[in-house]
Amino acid sequence: MERLVITPSLVHLAPRASRQFKIEIARRPVTSVSWSVNDVAGGNAEFGRITSAGVYTAPSNAPTPHEIHIHAIVKQPHKIHAWATVLMSQGAPTYRLVSKWGEKGTGPGKFVDPHSLCFDREGNLIITDAIGGDVYRYTKEGKYLGEIGSGPGSASGQFKGPRDVKVDAAWNIFVSDGDNQRIQVFSPSGKFLRAFGRKGAAPGEMLRVHAIWFTPSNRLYAADVDNSRIMVFSDLGKYLFAWGKAGTGPGEFHAPHGLAAMPTAISSSRTTGVLPEIYRRWEVSVRIRRARSERLHSRPQV
What we know:
This protein has strands spanning 4-7, 10-13, 18-20, 22-25, 28-30, 34-37, 40-41, 43-44, 48-50, 55-57, 67-74, 80-88, 103-104, 110-111, 114-119, 125-129, 134-138, 144-147, 162-167, 173-177, 182-186, 192-196, 209-214, 220-224, 229-233, 239-243, 256-262, 268-269, 274-275, 285-290, 294-298. With 302 residues, the protein is mostly beta strands.
């Protein structure tokens, strides 16, 4: 499936300011696009309006919250979605670069495709390099401390496309080893402990686990991009349950890439950016960012 690209994907606009949004597939411009603003076709006075040509004009007053979502749908050769975000402000926020390090390549201080990071129990950074097949550890100041595991490969402790890294309640290090169809576990010091998962579509099997996230009860949620589902494991790797399948309907996914677990209830509305339902009885709510759509899905603890 060709990927739909919207530009710009994020823009800061002052009240009544305008911006052109463009759609491309495989770097080719697309002109037959259906546009909406916060799920209102063509937009409205509250959230701003967008023309059939993709020219968006912000409202006279910034809504609350100040985040507005531009939604594009291309129906041919099949329905594909893309989203952009407008942040209403009197000007772009001012950011100050504090520090940076790294250069392109492999080895200490170098990256090919830095993909994810987390903090270990000492406050150091653990960074996955998806294309390089490495997992590095650095101080927050950028001093290289060493590797987790032993670099690219398929043996225990080696990686092929490591996408995400998280720590559990005991500070053990979990790496989603995407192209090896497994999740690997290391001690806080970096010693290989175990791995779980294998290639397939049966319960507990994986095709390409991308994002992982721990709940407060130390359950591990894992987004499997190519199986289009969310799987749940114990911290020891025991498969518990899963949900989701390929599709665009409620509870369905197309290439789920990211997730986050929150111990509090979530409320929202489709037209204001907050869902109309309040999930008060869920212990965990999981936010899934998908390639073709972005929704909030929840699953109760069992």
